[in-house]
Amino acid sequence: MDTSPGKIRGNSWRISGKKDILWLLVWIGGLLVLWVWDALFLNAPAFEKIQTAFLNSLWTGLMVVVLALFFGWFLGVGLQTLERSESTIWYTLASFAIDIIRSVPQIILVLIGYVLLTLLLHEGVIRSTMGQLLWIAFTIAIAVALEVADTVRERINYFRTLDFVDAMLCCGISEQRIVNVEILWKNSRSHLLYKLIAIFGVSIFLQCSIDFIVSVGLSTDVSLSNFPMTLGSLLANVDSKQDILALSNLFTDPGYLPTIVTTHLQGVSVAICIVFTLICVYMIANGFVRRHKLI
Amino acid sequence: MSSRRYDIHIASSQRQLVDISDFVLAESSITVLFGESGIGKSLSALAIAGLIDPDQLSVRINDRKYDDYLRSPDLLDIRRNGFFVFQEPSSHLNPLLTLRTQLREGSLSESSTEKRILGKLWPGSSTSIAQEILDVYPKPYRPSGGEKQRILAAMAFKKMSTADSSNPGSLFIFDEPTGNLDNRLRNDFLDLLVENFRLHRTTVLLITHDYSIISHFTISYPDLAKRIVFKELMLDRGKLRLREFRPSEYLDWMADRRSRPRLAPQTTELLKLGQSVRVFGRRLLITRDHAGKDPSPLIIRKGALVYLKASSGVGKTTLAKLMMGLLSAERMSMQFQGMEYTETTHRKMWSERVWGRQMTMVFQHADEALNQNASVRDVFKGLPLKTAMDDAGTIKRLSELFEEGLDREFLRRPVKHLSGGQKQRLNLLRSLVLDTDVLILDEPLNGLDFASSVKVIANIEGKLQRGGGVLVISHNEEIFDALASRENIYYLHATA
Amino acid sequence: MIGILSTLIFGREGLRKKLAVHGASLLFVAVIFGIIILMLNTRRTEQRELESGVQTYLDLKDVDLGDPVDRAIFRESLQVFFPGRGGQNDSLLSAIDDLRQRQFSNPAYKSGNHLQGLTGAVIAGLSGMYVQFLAVYLVVLVIIYFLAERIGIYRFVKMKQHRESYLAQFSEQVKRFQNPVERKNRMAIERALALILLKATGKGILLAVLFSPAYVIAYAMKTTVDTDSLFFMVLLGVLSNGVLIHTANRFFTLLVAESHKGYVQTAIVKNLAASYEWDTRDGISRRALLSVRKGLGSHVFQHILLNAKYQFIPTLKEHASFLVTGLIIIEMALNIQGHLSYELLQQILYRQYDVACFIIFSIFFTVKATEMGIDIWYEREKRRYGY
Known about the structure:
The complex is a heterotrimer.
Chain A: H1 13-16, H2 19-41, H3 44-84, H4 88-102, H5 106-123, H6 129-161, H7 164-170, H8 175-187, H9 189-213, H10 231-236, H11 238-246, H12 249-252, H13 257-262, H14 265-291
Chain B: E1 3-11, E2 16-26, E3 30-35, H1 41-48, E4 58-61, E5 64-65, H2 66-71, H3 73-81, E6 83-85, H4 99-103, H5 114-121, H6 127-134, H7 145-160, E7 171-175, H8 183-200, E8 203-207, H9 213-220, E9 228-236, E10 239-244, H10 247-259, E11 269-273, E12 276-279, E13 282-287, E14 298-301, E15 305-309, H11 316-324, E16 333-336, E17 339-342, H12 347-354, E18 359-362, H13 366-369, H14 391-398, H15 408-412, H16 420-432, E19 438-442, H17 450-465, E20 469-473, H18 477-483, E21 489-495
Parallel strand pairs in B: 3-8, 3-9, 6-7, 7-8, 15-20, 15-21, 18-19, 19-20
Antiparallel strand pairs in B: 1-2, 1-4, 4-5, 9-10, 11-14, 11-16, 12-13, 13-21, 16-17
Helix pairs in contact in B: 5-7, 7-8
Chain C: H1 2-10, H2 13-58, H3 68-81, H4 86-105, H5 107-111, H6 120-161, H7 166-178, H8 186-211, H9 214-221, H10 230-239, H11 243-259, H12 262-269, H13 286-290, H14 300-333, H15 340-349, H16 353-384
Helix pairs in contact in C: 1-2, 2-4, 2-16, 6-10, 6-11, 6-14, 6-16, 7-8, 11-14, 12-14, 14-15, 14-16, 15-16
């Protein structure tokens, strides 16, 4: 009789129960394989560009996650506090403002952020690459922080419907401790982490898309050549576009594949990097949900 | 008398949950199963009925893999001819189908006894009331918890009415079917159960924490003494064991309680709540009589156990929350420790003066009231204690209600790994350590086995002896009627 | 509009409040944008007057103010004809220099759009683009709603069927191959392995398409397909940017969450059919799943589906917003002339911020209108179920 932990339904429970870890390894492994392939077949300047673009995009994505967590937590808890305060006017105003921001498509908010970045560069307020990346991260974080705030509020509201909050209030535990420690830190870490994983994916998508879009330039003084190199801006590069265009040859001549993966490597590598990352982030998020039984 | 025997082993991905050999059910009998909450009664019953999801838990029954058991003729028979009434009525009814649809779908469409059964479960009211409820889509507050529980019971009785007593698959399991019912409705349910049992002689497993059922069965159905079996599931040296529970254990204890003199009542008033409170558009009236003709303010004196009674869904817990300042009343007046508390009292006053300092409340669902992801030690953090409690102090306080294995390891254990009974005791202890003047207890014996209930009652009496006042809300009428003196029993009524 | 008004007047309080908030947001944003557009228009009018004055000097016959000699003569002429106005003369010269530089470097000046602003003709042109954008958006939204539910259901049923992953199937076949007895059926094993590889590759390609940003797919197909057509735009809107997969995942999540609820157990003990095999007596009918209205009869899954569909409705708001993001990306990134989002990008480049504001407001209006529509729909469903 075998009821030891881990032996639920089938032999591969251990792996199938940790799909998020598996896909994280797949992502890292896949990127390593791509890196080695590019090192072997791609010319040095292009290879350097891809590395820089990837690291910039990755760094920005991680900054978005940190900033979104900070903004979202603060916003979520702040709104809860305002809602329960005696003066409802501030809560009404805050909800109204958030309702408006929520209805603006994220890409528009990020585009506005890029327009402002153009102006800041033009005026010389932001000069360094790091400063630009930080501003980009800040802009995207503003666009996605509402999702974190929604998660924070959902969790707090869920525990308020139970006896959880009332029982602790009755015992003299402060409301700040109940919300921030008991509910959010001890009982919602998994939910917030899941949301942050999803946000990382959204930030990569938005970043790449907006960089691709603004390749036409948002001003004559400031253009993509001024912005830091990211995966999206590299994909918008003429050489990369030519490489992607070459993919359509595969429809008429499947034997063209070796040429694609050896010659048209810059654009194809960037595209693979973006798409592969988005797929892996999605799988990691789904696996995380299953492992932590969030549904 | 023949019986069914089960060896049941259930484990999650992290630990063993149920490990019992010889889980025995007497055929064509009513087995009343007691035991601490979370010990494995419901889980074992679900396993027998084939209702556990093999993707969530690892199960073996009688040394067979669960997938094999699910395909076995025994189980298919149970599924076809038996029924299971689940514990939580709210979540076991589909909110997007009317109760009528749910009462008549699947194998229940075959029975024509619906009207009779509903008449028995809604006694004294016209049949149209039950029929009105049937057209409702079940929501959190409508119908009430008691009404939803009766609907689930009605499903079981409809199925039972078509049962063939010679068929061994006729196994009917009722998991806490009376938790939301007051005494009168509970007795109506038990009477209907016995009536159907007499007709069809099915095998019944009735899981409950309500030990006063023993009194009802013993007094009302002495002829069924051999057919009604009382058992208790308990942990014995780390392994689950099913033992016979002698009715005399409970009955003798009750007799002893009734004969004991009550604590001499003190005159010092700790709290006085006005006889009428207005909340959610309704008026809650406090009276001294069951009929509601003798309104009275509710007074808690030093050393007094006050017992508040009402039918299910009237608003006992709501009243308790109003007294704690957790809800805002439309109209309320309460004198407490020399201060006046009304509907305009600022929340800050409640949090600075009352909560955890002068008054506290123990909620009935320990699973909700405690942080499941906190450790036992963490449960006591953040409390406004007069003197801070270190590990040794915590262990000392825990020993008031816990016996087994109290050490630092126990303090580190997550609350979610405790049994339901242990959680309820911890829930209670968290409030007891605050040593407030007044303690409100909402269903304090919820989820406890008999031995723990006795301990908790002893603890409550200790608090009374130290001069504290206690307000109890409970369905265990038989027990608390014996503990509270006549002048400290109040009734709650709701009017528009 | 009549429906919305009547709902506002006669609808229930909760819905009335929501619609009132949406309406107030629209009004507030309209006022803000209106003020911005007005300010920009006023500035443009002033600029137009100033430039027309300055332009007369640039238009002087046989005078090239870029030439240093002509410039010096011009300065001295100003000093002769307008003595004692040294500062103003210098300002005039600066204004001329500025205008010359703008005409040289600003693409809006080159195209003649620099002082056009938000005129009636421009609004008429944008209206046509907006109608086109809206049509594509609505078609894509409906298709995604339908497909997301079907994909979510298919995934749920597959999960309940406990089919092994491709990796597990592959390793199973490899083990068979290593078994000397089973190796006699070599061809069958090889066929099975090939089929698994083909299915896995197909799934991989499908995932790559579904997750790809639209511009990657569009550029990959640009030489073989007309990527500017409306049909291709709809196809991209449905299949790319991850919109479909995320919406389907959301629905799948709701199905899984509902399947864990207590009423499902009650349905099982009432002996409703509970098998998830395709097209068996106690199982799930494939045809019933494809049909829009047909239910699943006495099956446990009917309970789950009913609740999941109900809860799916309010989540469509966030997916609609993401869908609009996707369509904007498609139009902008593919530089599709005559489309609303590309026009937005152009107007930002030309610094026609008033026109850009107008376009942004129209997009905001689209999202808000969708939210209102979904709120009304959800309220109707709530009323149906007694909420």
